[in-house]
From TrEMBL:
This is FCP1 homology domain-containing protein. SMART domains: CPDc. Signal peptide: none annotated. It comes from Ascochyta lentis. Residues 10-124 form the FCP1 homology domain. SUPFAM superfamilies: HAD-like. Gene3D superfamilies: HAD superfamily/HAD-like (3.40.50.1000).
Amino acid sequence: MLPDKDKVPGGAPELTLVLLLEDLLLHLEWSTKHGYRLAKRLGLDYFLRYLSSQYKLVIFTLVKSIDADPIICKLNPFRLVMWPLFREATRFKNSKYIKVLKSIEGKDIPTKYTCCKAKLRKAF
């Protein structure tokens, strides 16, 4: 799914970290007064800068690319996250979208996943 990247000097492959857009990077809330509001997590800019020095960052979301791409562009103005993955990178089975992240980097490259929701953690 992702393009091949050169290995880190010394021969060790660079690690990939997959971050979930909803609930980890952004917080969505709804109220009768304001309707839907989307808020960036506190310290997110520092968090992304720090992690980008350690990992190749991938943002994953179950939202369609046409809706999520403008949000990710605003979160990521310095292109620290180079590979966003959208709903199009999933499979639809039994009326649910299923992440296909097991083979995101191939067999040789270690990949770590972060997830806030217990239901989604089981999918990894």
